[in-house]
Amino acid sequence: MPGFVIDAQGIQKSFGTLKAVDGVSLQVNPGECFGILGPNGAGKTTTIKMLHGAVQPDAGTLRVLGRDVATQSRLIRAQMGIVSQEDTLDRDLTVYENLWVYAGFFSISRKSSLSRIEYLLDFMQLREKWDSQIKTLSGGMKRRLHIARALIHEPKFLILDEPTTGLDPQARHLVWHRLRELKAQGLTILLTTHYMEEAAQMCDRIGIMDGGKFLLEGPPQTLVQEKVGDEVYELRGGASEELLDSLQGLPVTAEVVADILYLYSHNGMGVMEHLISWGRKDFLRRPATLEDLFLRLTGRELRD
Amino acid sequence: MMLFPQAPSHRAFRVWVRHLVYYRSFYLAEWAGNLGEHILWLVAFGYGLGRLVPSLDGISYAQFIGPGLMVSVAMWNATYESTYGAYSRMRIQNIYESMLMAPLTVGDIVLGDLLWCASRALIGSSLMLVVLSLFGLVGSWWAVAILPILFIEAVMFAALGLIATSLAHSFSFFNFYFSAIVMPMFFFAGTLFPIKGLPLWVERFSDALPLTHAVRISRGLFIYGHVENFIWHFSFLLGFTFLFLAVACVLVSRRMVE
Ligand SMILES: Nc1ncnc2c1ncn2[C@@H]1O[C@H](COP(=O)(O)OP(=O)(O)O)[C@@H](O)[C@H]1O
Ligand SMILES: [Mg+2]
User: Fold this and answer.
1) Spatial distance between the Cα atoms of B70 and B67, rounded to a whole number of angstroms
2) Distances in Å between the alpha carbon of A214 and those of A52, A206, B67?
3) A105 and B257: CB-CB below 8 Å?
4) How confident is the model over B86-133, as pLDDT tens digits?
5) Are the beta carbons of B103 and A77 separated by less than 8 Å?
6) pLDDT for A2-32, tens place per residue?
7) What is the model's pTM?
8) For residue A34, how far is its CA from the centre of ligand 2 (angstroms)?
9) Cα–Cα nearest to A151, from A182, A115, A125
10) Binary contact (A93, B22; C-beta < 8 A)
11) Is A180 within 8 Å of A202 (Cβ atoms)?
12) Which of A114, A263, A299, B123 could form a Cys-Cys staple with A233, CB 3.0–4.6 A?
């Protein structure tokens, strides 16, 4: 039996009275890409830190790559690459030295680390920066170097905590492209993200997290289909009480946010005719997305 | 491994290498600074103040403080590196955190850091030895035998400094650490003046200080080529070193793993 890469059962973590992670269970299969979505403060980073032993769970059992994290986290980390949310590059060293020193932490021989570093600098398009100081790199370059560093030992499993937050679209697409390549090579990936597009494109399964719990978990398209529908109608300028009442008999769910009426529908045909018959042609009709699902589940109020 | 998942191992060497790679970018400036400072100390105290001091047990004051200065340099260097330096690595630059995402334990990181602090301190003390020999103050080849003792002493002070670092919440904590711990240690360990003949409680206090034992061993080797009660002083030094190392591992673990 190949076994799960991550097997978490009811893990919990409190900081004082705050329950940062409140009973998370999660199983990730080899070769799979799993995405954790959630607003700020949902508990994503705390969950990830428990996977590599930087935070100790208060309760629950947690196995990664078939080993118990509480007692064998060092051996787990030998086979796992980690890209943390915060920048942890070594600012005292150059790009090349960062990779070379980090390879040493994995006891990689000098000779094999040299060819690996060259490969990774090319892969992440950082070759001409090899001798630069970290402070001279752009945000996107730092993130790419971070990912290169996490891949130095050819891990079986890669964890990325918000790998693309704060990057410009070009840098973001480069990272996505590289991650898809890695996935195609069979790497198991766990990532957290705020970008629904990223999750929808990259992940075989996602979990939507809020308040330290998974609200929902499954393949992104299936979840959107089941929980939101196929289509969304957006009516700017809102709608009259009469129009809202008239929707009662139709297979739609209505939601009013500020001056917009959202109608989520499973088979849109009747809806469109209905709106037109009420004299409303100013609607936007579009496919339902993960963002609709996310906002419906976690609400629309700001989180920080 | 199962009992002490954060215990140190040979991988501490890799941490030491990281510090060495960084050191390559500024060591010449540091050596020049060290040499200048050492000469200043020796001239100011050994010869300036020394003119007022009668010979002690048949040796000049400059000869007397020579080994004391070597021991103090080891202490000061190890202390600076394990407080200001390590605090920056642990709390500001997230270097410890990045090491803990690789297959290293807190013990590896702590031991690697201590060995590094001690290496740097040993370089400082060796430069002091060079200065002393240039001034013709080194009487015997036994002086070189001090260096391994100074290395142990530096590991001990680095561990003590790292304990302070793991308790600190900002750099200002080190002001307290330096005035409450390091300064008294420096003055009452017999580095600059002999403790013998001072009130009994001062002698007792001095005996309890780890630095005193490094001073006794060093002065003995440096001047006479032998040390009275070597085993006693050496055990004291080694005992404190292991004690501080263990405490530092536990406290840094608490700080790094939530
Ligand atoms: N070390 C800590 N001490 C106290 N509270 C913390 C700590 N780490 C995280 N938290 C809190 O736990 C909650 C979850 O944080 P986090 O896991 O970082 O969320 P996310 O990564 O989803 O934004 C937040 O409310 C955060 O403030
Ligand atoms: Mg986070």
Assistant:
1) 5
2) 20, 10, 65
3) no
4) 999 999 999 999 999 999 999 999 999 999 999 999 999 999 999 988
5) yes
6) 689 999 999 999 999 999 999 999 999 999 9
7) 0.88
8) 16
9) A182
10) yes
11) yes
12) A263
